[in-house]
Amino acid sequence: MCYFASSYLAGRVAALGCFDKPFSVVDRARIYAELDGDLGSRLADDVARYTGYRVLGFWDNGFRHISNRLRPIRHPGDCRGMRIRTLDNAMYQRVLGAMGFTPMVIDVKDLVRAVETQEVDAQENPLTNTMNFGLHHTHKHLSLTSHFHGVALLLANRAWFEALAPGTQSALLAASAKATAAQRQFATAEDALCLEQLRRDRCRGGIGGKRSTWPRSAPLSQASAIEILQSRSRRHERVVHFREPDIAKRHLVRDAALAEQQRDRFSRD
Q1: Does the predicted model carry a pTM greater than 0.90?
Q2: What is the DSSP secondary structure assignment for residue 213, as one 8-state letter?
Q3: 244 by DSSP, 3-state: which?
Q4: Which of helix, strand or coil describes residue 81?
Q5: Where do the domains of the chain lie?
Q6: Per-residue pLDDT tens digits for 25-42
Q7: How far apart are CA 67 and CA 62, in angstroms?
Q8: Which segments of the chain does DSSP mark as H helices, in order?
Q9: 2-268 maps to which CATH number?
Q10: How many C-beta atoms surround the C-beta of residue 208 within 10 A?
């Protein structure tokens, strides 16, 4: 058994590309319901058809946000010329390039080095990665863009799974469903915890006593994303309106409180 980002299989399973649509997810509860319903069943069938895997669950791989070392990002012009580290994913590169960034594919094992040596000016990741890799110590500007929401696949070798006794298969699926529910709760709560820690670090001041700058930021709508992409082709900028970070924080705190309630129920089961 293993788990990894769905993007790694998108080249073999075209349907998984649905997770790589920019700014398409703003409600975790809604995407969870879809993944636990018909959409998830169809995707699992496609994974089984085109790979040697059996999907056991769809895990939350986090909303991706942008951090950088140069300036706040409030409209497309602020992105222009910034070298941004991203994944080896054509859609990610196309969207970031349309915003004005210069995308650079760098393996995650080299991410910290690339940020610290200023090989890149910006990077995009879930808050947990930005925090755990210590990238906020170098990047003092964080934009809560939620430009992609990642899904990780919990997988088993299909031949191995099908060789199991029916009762064992059922038990494994039940355990996987329980693990999936718990993982999603942890992912939601961790976002709120990371945001609060990043805000505390900001209040203490940044490297060399310089206080970090947080732009007016929150998840963008799909309409705003289209504005960004179209602005590049029209050769002029249109301002994208963001919510204040305190509003974004309230959404994350609400999600964390819900996750805590669900975790309590989960621990009693």
Answers
A1: no
A2: B
A3: coil
A4: coil
A5: 2-268
A6: 878 999 999 999 999 999
A7: 15
A8: 28-35, 38-50, 90-99, 111-116, 127-132, 158-162, 166-204, 222-233, 245-268
A9: 3.40.190.170
A10: 5
